Please model this.
Amino acid sequence: MKKSLSYPAIMGILNVTPDSFSDGGKYNELDNALLHCEEMLTQGADIIDIGGCSTRPNNAIATEQEELRRVIPVLKAIRKKFPEAVISIDTFRKNVAEACMGEGADIINDISGGLFDAEMLHYIGQNRVPYILMHCIGTPETMHQYSLDGDIHQTVMDFFQQQCAVLESYGHTDIILDPGIGFGKSLQSNYALLNDLDRYRYHDYPILIGISRKSMIRKLLGDQADSENCTTILNTVALLHGADILRVHNVKNAVELKKTCIFASY
Model:
């Protein structure tokens, strides 16, 4: 990556959609998106992850044209106002990835790990694009219908080996791995992945954990659970088990957690 990161790093979520599960509609206006981006950077975010296509369960998937219409103006505005920011684009579409890299994005964050668009891995590998590869199963419409169990660590590791082999065939190794917690896995599997990161760590690539406000909290503790408090607890577990990047909605909490964990480990 042309802009280096020090780990652990905090990735702040910037959803520019009307329908994301936690903050849909809050930041899909350009001014609001810029203000939220500035807030997260001021709070200490190392990466800003822009998403223009929600994949929440039972949700209509935005078209490629709609995703580009949402993301490109925000990307351009952030790159202009915050030229040093590290910007990630949350997309599973090769054409969106290519357009965004052309506008100054730094990383592509693909929830499908190359499954949803047959051209994605080849584009990423050929162009050595920094890439977050998430474990997934199914299609955008069906991925939440699965509930994988069993030896989930081996399942995720096998997927990482398979998809990374394509990228590595191009000599590309600027890869970050995401086990896809909350995507098509049983409650037990989600917590198992969080508890033992090194069982699926491949080639010592960095691991990203995204558990912010996810339903695995409510499924365990009930609908009245404090999702922010529980997110902080689970992110603490992730850091203590070696997570390299935390993808979060609440950057302030995550930065304070990171500083506390680093200080406590001395």
About this structure: The CA atoms of residues 217 and 230 lie 7 Å apart. The chain has one domain: 9-264. The chain has nine helices and eight strands.
